[in-house]
Design goal:
The chain has about 500 residues and is an alpha+beta fold. Helix content is about 45%, strand content about 10%. It has 3 domains: about 5-175, no CATH class; about 195-355, no CATH class; about 370-510, no CATH class. It is built from 22 helices and 12 strands. The strands form 4 sheets. Strands 3-1-6-2-10 form a 5-stranded mixed sheet. A 3-stranded antiparallel sheet has the order 8-7-9, with helices on one face. Strands 4-5 form a two-stranded antiparallel sheet. Helix 9 (about 235-245) crosses helix 11 (about 260-285) and helix 11 packs across helix 12 (about 300-305). The longest helix has 26 residues, at about 260-285.
Length: about 500
């Protein structure tokens, strides 16, 4: 079946990776009757993109009237068994494949193997018997000729074991691609995770359209704007693709997409992602994918901005306000931390309604922002609440403590490292005054502050570092929501008042 092109390695599978020694161990397991797992195939007449090679061997194309069995599980074993026993098919010149031999002098123990993978100059004719002759009667007779009778008996016994060996397998006969994806995911869950991009690439492939190449080109285009990571987040891009083309970002909807539809309308996907990124940069000051509390926020936005060809989707002031309100409400409520698919489906529908200027309830879900959000949540660049907090501060165009100049948000947010954010009430001061009770790292005590400025202010009390502040420090304090009580050096008063200011502004963003 492999030799005539009926069994294929589909494009969504990885290549052959087993070392020669592992191939030899598989032969030993078969010889000794050890379990070596079952194979799983997907039988279909649908032509997908498939590899024309199995390991180092180039295979013929399948006959038109034959169904094709694509390997879902067991590629390494199929390739090993075929490669060891086949004869007559040439290997690629750059292949590191080694022939496997039966070692006549090896000890027969449950642990030790009787099979070895050898280079041609390592083979000892009287000791190493080539396995690729076992199923070719003429070759087998020729290779055994002239050997002692006891050796021939030993070889016959070995040959018989392989002739009697049975390879367990299952065949799934379905034309439902979603089912195939689920099967592939489940059988590979303990090994290599499902790569949905590779699966969808197989569904949509044509000579002039390769989905993975399209994603890479989009990543390169977005790179100057700080959103090159969008191209590397295949799950995100696939959700955008499914949402734009089907109105549903679920894996099942993704697998039901028609290949021709994806190819013909893919410009809508790329234009949607471009428009979403542009909106986030211009209206929400997000300078990279990492700035977003949830990268999933890009999906409904891509639906709004999806357009064919060279056209762009413009938006009214009312639509802009509705989208930004939805963004902040989604961020503060951690909308995409649970029930992701359900919430995405709702937001995609309402985003599309907004785009079509029909009645839309986008962002209409319960939300109440309290001071506790800023006094109970700790700061950490990787968590959702901190990312929301940072973007919220960025909306006020923060000013440097010492120089009085505006913070370069493009540079600071793209870098997104801890050196650009520091404590207003210094840790050293809080430790010495024993005021913070180890809660100095809460959001209410963090602001945009460069490492240079932080060193200048040192670990002193605010009343002492006041003299080093820029002359326009009151303007600076306003952009950072810092109350005048900071200079009383009372941490408890400062935290309560700043948290109240932060909660008031956060609420205004969500109104």
């Amino acid at each position: 079946m492999v030799g005539r092109g009926q069994i294929r390695i589909p494009a969504f599978q990885r290549g052959f990776v087993w070392e020669p020694e592992r191939v030899a161990y598989l032969m030993d397991s078969i010889y000794k009757g050890y379990p070596f797992g079952s194979l799983m195939f997907w039988r279909t007449r649908e032509q997908l993109k498939f590899d024309k090679e199995i390991g180092p061997f180039v295979l013929p194309s399948p006959k038109e009237d034959y169904p094709v069995d694509y390997v879902l599980d067991g590629q390494q074993r199929v390739t090993s068994i075929f490669g060891v026993f086949q004869q007559g098919m040439k290997k690629k010149s750059d292949s590191d494949w080694l022939e496997v031999y039966y070692d006549l002098e090896a000890n027969f123990t449950p642990q030790d193997t009787r099979f070895v993978a050898l280079k041609s100059d390592e083979v000892v004719a009287d000791r190493h018997f080539p396995l690729n002759t076992l199923f070719d009667s003429a070759a087998y007779r020729s290779t055994t000729e002239g050997r002692r009778k006891d050796v021939i008996n030993k070889l016959d016994e070995m040959q018989e074991r392989f002739k009697e060996a049975r390879i367990p397998f299952q065949i799934s006969k379905t034309e439902d691609k979603a089912t195939v994806a689920i099967i592939f995911e489940r059988v590979n869950r303990q090994g290599v995770d499902l790569n949905t991009l590779q699966l969808l690439s197989a569904w949509t492939w044509s000579e002039d359209f390769q989905l993975q190449d399209q994603f890479e080109e989009l990543a390169e285009e977005l790179s100057p704007f700080g959103f090159e990571d969008v191209g590397g987040d295949t799950d995100l891009l696939l959700r955008c693709c499914s949402a734009v083309l089907s109105g549903d970002a679920s894996p099942n909807a993704l697998m039901q997409l028609n290949g021709t539809q994806v190819r013909q309308q893919f410009d809508r996907v790329t234009n949607g992602v471009r428009g979403a990124v542009d909106f986030l940069r211009k209206n929400l000051k997000a300078e990279s994918l990492n700035n977003l509390p949830f990268s999933t926020l890009l999906v409904p936005l891509a639906v709004f901005f999806a357009a064919s060809g060279n056209s762009e989707v413009s938006y009214t002031d009312s639509q802009k306000k509705r989208i930004t309100r939805w963004f902040w409400r989604s961020a503060f409520s951690k909308r995409y931390s649970s029930g992701v698919l359900r919430n995405l489906k709702t937001d995609i529908l309402q985003m599309n309604n907004l785009r079509e200027d029909t009645e839309s309830s986008l962002g209409e879900f319960p939300l109440n922002i309290e001071k506790d959000f800023f006094t109970h949540n700790k700061f950490g660049l990787g968590n959702v609440n901190s990312k929301t907090f940072i973007l919220m501060l960025a909306q006020k165009n923060p000013v440097s403590f010492v120089s009085g100049s505006k913070v370069d948000l493009a540079k600071t947010l793209k870098a997104a490292n801890r050196s650009e954010f520091h404590h207003i009430m210094p840790k050293d001061f809080l430790k010495k005054s024993q005021q913070a009770d180890h809660h100095d790292n809460i959001l209410a005590n963090i602001c945009f502050l460069s490492r240079t400025d932080n060193r200048r202010l040192g670990g002193r009390a605010p009343s002492l570092y006041k003299s080093d502040l820029a002359p326009n420090y009151r303007e600076m304090f306003e952009t950072a929501f810092i109350p005048d009580t900071i200079f009383t050096d009372s941490y408890s008063k400062f935290v309560v008042e700043r948290a109240a200011k932060l909660a008031e502004f956060a609420t205004s963003l969500c109104m």
